[in-house]
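Chapter summary example.
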Amino acid sequence: MLQEFKTFLTKSNALALAVGVIIGAATGKVVSGVVDDLLMPVIGILLPAGDWRDAKLVLRTVVDAKGKVSESAIAYGHLLGTFIDFVLIAFVVFMVTKALLKPAAPPPPTKNCPECLEGIPLEARRCKACGSQQP
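The structure predicted for these 135 residues follows.
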């Protein structure tokens, strides 16, 4: 059973998935740090001062018999703040991904064999699939 488990870990995508989750968690901390420590102070200068994230539209206020006040409100300030956080985090993830991942090289140009319609390199003199002579 132990050998079967070892085979599962090494021959399946479980190990790659585990590494991806660990790297994703570490990257998430870096991205959150960049957004919270670098971008949000700058954006805080541009946004209006005050507790705008606490802004809400109160629909109903209820006071119970014990004097406890409860509100039913649309918290549009929190929603707006969450949206701004999402856009910033998505932008930082995009920039980090763009910096780390290089674009794939374009595939070499090919042509189709007139006999079997298999894709072959432009410079080929014979088809790799059917062996026919190429013009």
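To summarize the output: Residues 106-135 form one domain.
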